[in-house]
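[agent] plan:
  1. take the single chain provided in the ticket
  2. run structure prediction with default settings
  3. attach structure tokens to the ticket
  4. add a short note for the reviewer (M.T.)
[agent] executing step 1
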Amino acid sequence: MSKERVGLYPGTFDPITRGHTDIIKRAIKLVDRLVIGVATNPSKDPLFSLEERSRMVMSETRALAEAAGVTVEVRPFEKLLMHFAEEVGANIIIRGLRAVSDFEYEFQMAGMNRRLNPDIETVFLMAEAELQSIAARLVKEIAMFNGDITSFVSPEIAEQVRARVRERNAPS
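[agent] step 2 finished; step 3 output follows
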């Protein structure tokens, strides 16, 4: 009997972008079950709470999972990635790459993760060429200066980002 292929795609998803959803579409072709781990990262000063980001990811991926017939779970986590991977039974870590600059960091992380658990493989997926420049950090920055983010995120996410930016910029 073959072992279930469980993939874990971790990220902060603040907010989830079209680049993220592209990687998710590719990842569900490779696994039997995909866990999307929504991570805390206080150093990134998130625009949305962990719970809000988890809800956003769930709403953006529900239709993808149904169309592919693959189980997709969205789970927040606040621990070492490899501990979380073991907890969810992942045997594959999915990482998205946008540019060569991402590779050096991701390569180092994959090596460290392999030392922590050699049974979990890291798989790198490239986003579609037209999506490779999208970074959640830049989406937030564009929104903060009232720029158009609709080509980088879904309409629903764009509205949530604009609303949060308005809240943050409102006089106290």
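[agent] step 4 note for reviewer: The CA atoms of residues 5 and 30 lie 8 Å apart.
[agent] ticket updated
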